[in-house]
Amino acid sequence: xxxxxxxxxxxxxxxxxxxxxxxxxxxxxxxxxxxxxxxxxxxxxxxxxxxxxxxxxxxxxxxxxxxxxxxxxxxxxxxxxxxxxxxxxxxxxxxxxxxxxxxxxxxxxxxxxxxxxxxxxxxxxxxxxxxxxxxxxxxxxxxxxxxxxxxxxxxxxxxxxxxxxxxxxxxxxxxxxxxxxxxxxxxxxxxxxxxxxxxxxxxxxxxxxxxxxxxxxxxxxxxxxxxxxxxxxxxxxxxxxxxxxxxxxxxxxxxxxxxxxxxxxxxxxxxxxxxxxxxxxxxxxxxxxxxxxxxx
Length: 296
Prior knowledge:
296 residues, mainly alpha
């Protein structure tokens, strides 16, 4: 890490929270809120739960920046991050992570419900510490095992509306399953594109340990599994035809990208697949929301 300086701006602190990732997380969480009720989500729950979940996600992201600063300084994708460049020191970053995380749990516990606060806490610890500090460096299945913590935002949104009795609705777990199965092909596509950088940083991502071709095959298999997982909301009558058709089309397009990636030697296809995977998840949850109110 370079010498510390005092040129950090609010944009640098915002970057520590990974705002683009947090936005995607919040979309899935908010959709989870609306899926939990046939009507409108109460405004107080919508606002407070969104802020609380967003703060937790941001806090976990800051911890990720702190722990991965040496890796970030090696990889081209991350070498300009505020901690890696020395714009923000560890102490200030840890204070930010603590404030965001504690504020999140307190808000959710007292103004939403204890179940949502507890699940948020487990998700925060799972990503910030179990995945970032251990799994990421321990196994090529890091993103598979650690993906569970990143898959729970729609569950948090659902329990924010429907978790006052301390129970979890089975339909909320289907949304978790979709993101859980989506995470490996999403991240492995990026890992293929950044394979040499991960190898240089000594991170055992699947393309590093098992090769690019094996990873491409794994992406196809997980994408097929994702198509079936994506249909479960329809098969369990949680959602209707609008969602089923949308899910099928989006899944087949994803599979098309995965097959093209398998057959091509161009690195650019890996990044195209990664970018589409983000659009896939966003559109899937929008389809859930549209379908949900289409039938009411």
